[in-house]
Amino acid sequence: MWHNSPLKSDGIWFHSCSFGEARAIKPIVDTLPKESLRMTTTTNTGYKAISEYTKESRYLPFEWLLWFWTTPQKILVVMEAEFWYLLFAIARSKGAKTILINARMSDKSYHKYYKMRWFYKKIFDQIDEVFAQTNKDAQRLESLGAKNITITGNIKLSHLPSPTKKLTKPDGLIVCGASTHEGEEELILKAFEALKRDEHHAKLIIVPRHPERFEKVALMIEEFANQRYTTQRYSQNQTLTSDIVLVDTLGELVNIYAISDIVILGGAFVPIGGHNAGEAAKFGCKIISGKHYFNQRDIFQAIEGIAVVEDFNLTKRVLQHAQLKRCSIKQRSDISAILESLRS
Domain 12-151 classified CATH 3.40.50.11720? Predict the structure, then answer.
């Protein structure tokens, strides 16, 4: 507890879980006085992101410790699906207005939650306002007891990140294996091996989702290359001249998207739920995804041109890359209602 002191009182407290969620709230955070910001998360990558907003950034303690840890705040803003009963109840009991933003309810989660709707009704009794991603999300949340629901679209599309630096695009076709998870790098490497026979100058850039997997993926790439391909680690050399590059640093994916021709988007070739395709679509990349994108359905629906394939068809689809469309974003979201609620 002494290494994770309570937040200063009387601020606007944002709680987000992942790195992506913490990055997604930036357009909202940027409109607020910095001295009012309070941030919590439960992941190391999330903490890295929120620490850039304010020094008043903490890890959220175990739920039962919140009784002793929570300080009175003006507002509690929680991202997406962090349905912690005590988090809302304690913050509200200490005077905070409680808001759930970017709220979503996947097919899989809804059936499970609906069986325990009596419990989720107790949670939503502690939430003053809900800002849902889609009409379907709103209907499902309402059936669980949510009230004062506004549909805003997915805030992850409201302000997509811009490159932090300009990379020099190497010659040849650039393929990015983005936000990959266990079991996905093997599929991508196999597809790249087939592509390399036709596109001799093609290059593959692999960006694992979780930094704790960097070393394992590095060994996998070295074993796969086996002196047939040149390899490098981005942390040691940023020239992107090798056949296969492992990006083993955080915060570089948007810079890689800006120079990529094809993006094989991870998190959907295994049942993770997918990742934000809008960040790659912003640059007109050709995007290939697996079928397990259940947490990103609304984002995928807002983007034109994504190719969704079974894992065993990935190689075939990569070889047919000339037939793929460059992706574009059909619709964005509107966070003005959220901003109005915070200001009021």
Answer: yes
Question: Whose CA is closest to 86, among 106, 114, 64?
Answer: 64
Does domain 174-329 sit in CATH 3.40.190.10?
Answer: no
> What are the residues facing 132 on neighbouring strands?
103, 151
Type of residue numbered 75: I
Whole-prediction pTM value?
0.69
Instruction: Name the stretches of the chain with pLDDT < 50.
Output: 1-2
Burial of 116 (0-12, 13-18, 19+ CB in 10 A): exposed
- Reported as a single tens digit per residue, the pLDDT across 17-51 is 888 788 889 999 999 999 999 999 999 888 999 99
Residue among 221, 137, 156 at smallest CA distance from 185:
221
Phi, psi of 184 (to 5 degrees): -95, -30
Q: Which residues contact 299 (CB under 8 A, 6 or more apart)?
A: 154, 156, 157, 276, 277, 278
Query: Where do the DSSP E strands lie in the chain?
Result: 12-15, 37-41, 57-59, 75-79, 97-103, 129-132, 149-151, 174-180, 203-208, 231-233, 244-246, 262-265, 286-289, 303-304, 307-308, 328-329
C-alpha to C-alpha distance for 21 and 46, rounded to whole angstroms: 8
Per the rule left: phi > 0, alpha: psi between -120 and 50, beta: everything else, 97 is: beta
Q: How crowded is residue 217: how many other Cβ atoms within 10 Å of its Cβ?
A: 22
Q: Where are the domains of the chain?
A: 12-151, 174-329
CA dihedral 281, 285, 288, 291 (to 10 degrees): 0
Sign of CA dihedral 263, 266, 268, 273: negative
Q: Do domains 12-151 and 174-329 have the same CATH topology?
A: yes
